[in-house]
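Suppose a colleague, Dr. K., hands you the sequence of a protein chain of 299 amino acids and asks what its three-dimensional shape might be. Before reaching for any lab equipment, you can write down a predicted structure in token form. Begin with the sequence itself:
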Amino acid sequence: DSFGIGAVKLNVLIYIVWNKVKNIQIIVNEEKDRGLILTGSITAYLRERGVEAQSCVVRRNDVLCFDTDRLPECLITLGGDGTFIQAACKAAESGIPIFGINLGNVGYLTEVEKDNIFPALDRLLSGRYVTENRMMLRGRCVSQESAEEGLALNDIVISRHGSLRAVRYELFVNNRLLNTYDADGLIVSTPTGSTGYNLSAGGPIVEPTARLILVNPICPHTLNTRAIVLSADDTVRVRVVGGRFPQEYEAEVSYDGGRNAMLSPRQEVTISCAMVEARLIRLGEESFLDILSRKMRDR
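The predicted structure, expressed as tokens, is then:
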């Protein structure tokens, strides 16, 4: 028994030593940190402790790039959930874990609040953290001219473009027609994204490490339509049929509220679980339900 206890302690010690972070890139939303004052303080704090730290200002729809010869061991985002999501998609492609500091409003993904930044950095640098894998979605839009793909941590939204009239969508699951909707759009969400647009549209809240796909219509013209919960192994196709009237309507596909692609009638987007996952750094003991309860009370 004593040998077993010692082995457990040794394993924990090795985990802590090997997870110390020495190379960090800070992704900053300049609108949340005017003059980059907080960014400068964090960068100086890290460098004083022997960490190689660089900062990068991002704006909405900016494409992040990393030096492939020397990838950062960790990303820290300064902003809200939008900044975090923007960085997370690029980080997932390179397998880089990401850690969020909340300078926004709700902050379901950005774990650390402004008052706790430096104690949290100390935990990160000493290796006292765990990583949490979150499933992502990959969408592929096919038109006569081209095919375009995108990743999403939260959701892929297909919505009307232009006219305020409802658009008719056909929803296929594993190549079988499941339903037809006259609606403003459809939200296809991950569990992580269940507290985003899906929540605003009346969809269910899901534990974020689960593996499933949510499909939720936006303002459907019906009395009985509900969100649908699918397996992460399912493949979803959404086809734009057109409007309820003779005119034809276009729709747009949005990845995490950012980059858009256009769909004309009879064109479609195929959505499935992505091969890559986002790796979120978690420092505290607070569970998802604790965070959810606190955020709801704060609002």
